[in-house]
Design brief:
The chain has four helices and no strands. By secondary structure, it is mainly α. It has one domain. The radius of gyration is 16 Å and the shape is globular. The N and C termini lie far apart (49 Å).
Length: 89
């Protein structure tokens, strides 16, 4: 019983930490819209070459540019596209 409770507490703490990190990530874009516009321009450039903004190439760009894990880069990309450049594919 105690083991299960400790395991649950650990998972809860881990998920809260992940949500906080994602929240900070999204706040950084809100505070720096020029970064979002730069990403939108890159996504548009990729679209013109027939490459999706959700492709590995696009996620890799966001990951390297912002020093993020691929998962966080994908989350950031989705957020930026939804808020700043919804016409990007």
């Amino acid at each position: 019983m105690i083991k299960n409770s400790l395991y649950f507490s650990f998972l809860l703490l881990l998920s809260m930490n992940t949500m906080h990190a994602q929240s900070n990530l999204l706040e950084s874009v809100k505070k720096n819209p020029k970064d979002a516009i730069e990403m939108c321009n890159k996504f548009k450039e990729l679209n013109q070459r027939g490459i999706s903004a959700s492709s590995d190439e696009a996620v890799s760009y966001v990951s390297k540019k912002n020093k993020l894990t691929p998962v966080n880069a994908e989350i950031l990309s989705i957020y930026v596209i939804g808020i700043h450049c919804p016409n990007v594919m």
